[in-house]
Design brief:
Blueprint: E1 3-6, H1 10-20, E2 26-29, H2 34-38, H3 47-50, E3 54-58, E4 64-69, H4 75-93
Parallel strand pairs: 1-2
Antiparallel strand pairs: 3-4
Length: about 90
């Protein structure tokens, strides 16, 4: 798992990471160039807003296998979908 932070500096990210006791690596995209490479506008929102709290699952060949854009109203359902997608990908490896 890798976290990607968009348009924030290292001190902000480190504080957030420490607050939540995350141990996975977090990559910084301080200029905000990543969102437009991976997603487009949705619902009138720019890519940098759309990509916030999204989950992307890539396989060993870096092929996108699942994308989920979180919505606070459906957070629980979204998490279940991501877990299911990960489990299906792991079954394929067996």
């Amino acid at each position: 798992m890798i976290g990607i932070d968009i348009k924030e500096g290292p001190l902000t990210v480190e504080g957030f990471r420490d607050q939540h006791a995350w141990t996975f690596p977090i990559v910084l995209d301080e200029k905000g160039t990543l969102p437009s490479r991976f997603t487009s506008s949705r619902g009138g929102l720019p890519p940098e807003v759309v990509i916030i709290n999204s989950h992307w699952i890539l396989d060993a060949d870096l092929k996108v296998r699942h994308v989920d854009y979180l919505n606070v109203a459906t957070f629980d359902a979204s998490v279940k979908q991501v877990v299911t997608a990960i489990e299906e990908l792991l079954k394929e490896k067996k």
